[in-house]
Write a structure and sequence with these properties.
7-stranded mixed β-sheet, 60s Ribosomal Protein L30, Chain: A, 7 strands, globular, about 20% helix, alpha+beta, AA_synth_put, about 190 residues, BB2672, Amino acid synthesis family protein
Length: about 190
């Protein structure tokens, strides 16, 4: 399969102290790590592309390690999500190749994460933004951790590139009051509850 060629990487961390209510005792941290890579399938239809997922695994692991470290280490992480923006000479299916390498990398770094990693992808040009969905790492139904982080890079993806994104958070939304299953009540049986 093709070599993974990285043009640039970006890591960003937000600290959220309040959303109009009282200042939180501990701010929520929400972070994203992005990589802009050459799309080896740009400009043509290629039937067999699934092998490129194996090539992306080392990049996924490196990105997940860096992001977890920036947020205080794997033990601090409570939410996660992933996404991809495919440049205009590619197809949305090229972004789908990030599902396994991105998701499994985060689950490996975090140890015993049970919930499926939510994901989104689309085709777009330089400066395209993507809202990456976030859920709790062990139970997708924990409403307090339903979140999203907008990601993007001003000059990417170019037509022959893919922007790959991982997002992690350190807790529930600040001032969450939407009810539902609490993180403290997770049974951890199926990744849902």
């Amino acid at each position: 399969m093709p070599e993974v060629v990285i043009r640039k990487r970006c890591l960003t961390v937000e600290e959220i102290f309040h959303e109009g209510g009282p200042v939180a005792a501990k701010p929520l941290k929400r972070g994203a790590v992005l990589a802009v890579i050459r799309n080896p399938f740009a400009g043509r239809y290629v039937e067999e592309i699934v092998g490129f997922m194996d090539d992306l695994k080392p990049l996924g692991l490196a990105m997940a390690r860096d992001l977890a470290a920036a947020l205080g280490g794997p033990a601090a992480i409570e939410g996660y999500g992933k996404g991809a923006i495919v440049g205009q000479a590619g197809e949305v299916e090229h972004g789908a190749l990030w599902h396994a390498p991105g998701g499994y990398a985060m689950r490996e770094i975090l140890g015993d994460a049970k919930a499926i990693v939510p994901s989104t992808k689309k085709v777009g040009g330089p400066g395209t933004r993507l809202d990456v969905p976030v859920t709790h790492i062990n139970a997708s139904y924990v409403r307090s951790h339903f979140d999203a982080m907008e990601v993007g890079i001003a000059d990417g993806p170019r037509a022959d590139e893919i922007l790959l994104a991982l997002v992690m958070t350190t807790g529930a939304r600040i001032h969450n009051r939407a009810g539902g299953l609490k993180a403290s009540d997770i049974k951890g049986e199926d990744g849902l509850r």
